[in-house]
Amino acid sequence: MNSKITRALQVFVKTVEAGNMSRAAEQLNMTASAVSQQITKLEQDIALGLFNRNTRKLTLTEAGEIYYASAVQLLATAELAQQQLEQLQHTPSGRLKIVAPIGFGGGLLSQPIKQLTECFPKVELQLTLTDEPFDIIAAGVDLAICIGPLHDSTLIARHLADWQLIPCVSSAHPLAEVAPTQPDALTGHTHIGHINSKRFAHTLTHEQNAAAYALDEPRLLVNNMQAVIQLTLDGIGYGMLPEPEVRHLLAAGRLKRLCPQWHLPHYSVYAVTPHRDAVAAKTRAAIDSLRSWFEQVSADPHLCVGEN
């Protein structure tokens, strides 16, 4: 509610309860003239008198009685709204809408979501997994996990992690038996890629001598990273897969890393929120939880976060 309107209603209600403007002015720490001006402005706005005035006491007109009852309700509603807004700012509560890439549903989000549900019982989570483009503002999303770089200046992006895409193949694929150390051995085999992979270079770099090798463009493009991983597991070809999402498959021997001394440029993960002056406590808590967990994933290469 507009603060000027709220203040005028407070003056009016206090005047009614105090019985005269002078006493109301003392209780409100205002001058009697300022109180009189507020009342006069209200009467002008509704084109009706609110008080029957005499030298000793103010009494309400019929319009004043109606207006007083409404003003009390409006002020109570405004106070409740203010309390709820303050709670949002200081205590994580309410519905938290999160959008993330489908691959993050394979285990990367389990720990931070568990922390949120256990530490903040008043938070209700709504998680949407998609690899399709979406409008954060139109969808009413509180927090989106996105792969950068980002170019929308109307959004706020907070860096969470830098991870690698690594060349992998099914342990049953012929390449797994050859275990090539040089990327030219991949020529002629089907390269499986995400449909958005054009945002990333398909050039491998040697970690020691910085030699570069340009891979063939993906022959099979898929719009879902989990499907890219599954097709790679099924032996269709080799894929450039996000290391944290396939760490458990490598540890279990279902996937084999190819050309271990070669790597692609890292990709960055961001927590993205609408451009607002203040971020609700529930969103801040989610960002802190995500950043803490992703830092652990980055620091410990043996920490398996996917499904077993």
Enumerate how many helices there are, as a single number: 9
Task: Give the beta-strand count.
Answer: 15
Using the alpha-carbon principal axes, give the shape: rod-shaped
Strand line-up in the sheet with most strands: 4-3-5-15-6
Strand content: 15-25%
Q: Taking Cα atoms only, what radius of gyration do you get, to the nearest Å?
A: 31 Å
By helix and strand content, what is the structural category?
alpha/beta
- Report the mean per-residue pLDDT as an integer: 87
SSE inventory with pairings:
Blueprint: H1 3-18, H2 21-28, H3 32-46, E1 51-53, E2 58-60, H4 62-90, E3 94-100, H5 110-119, E4 123-129, E5 143-147, E6 155-163, E7 165-170, H6 174-178, E8 191-194, E9 203-206, E10 212-214, E11 220-222, H7 225-233, E12 238-242, H8 243-251, E13 255-257, E14 262-263, E15 267-274, H9 281-299
Helix pairs in contact: 1-2, 1-3, 1-4, 2-3, 5-9
Structure description:
The protein has nine helices and 15 strands. By secondary structure, the protein is an alpha/beta fold. α1 crosses α4 and α5 (110-119) packs across α9. It starts with a helix and ends in a 9-residue tail after the last helix. Strands 4-3-5-15-6 form a five-stranded mixed sheet, covered by helices on one side. The chain has a five-stranded mixed sheet with strand order 11-8-12-7-13. It has helices at 3-18, 21-28, 32-46, 62-90, 110-119, 174-178, 225-233, 243-251, 281-299, and strands spanning 51-53, 58-60, 94-100, 123-129, 143-147, 155-163, 165-170, 191-194, 203-206, 212-214, 220-222, 238-242, 255-257, 262-263, 267-274. It has three domains: 3-88, Winged helix-like DNA-binding domain superfamily/Winged helix DNA-binding domain (Arc Repressor Mutant, subunit A); 94-161 and 268-299, D-Maltodextrin-Binding Protein, domain 2 (3-Layer(aba) Sandwich); 165-265, D-Maltodextrin-Binding Protein, domain 2, CATH 3.40.190. The mean pLDDT is 87. The chain is rod-shaped and about 105 Å long.
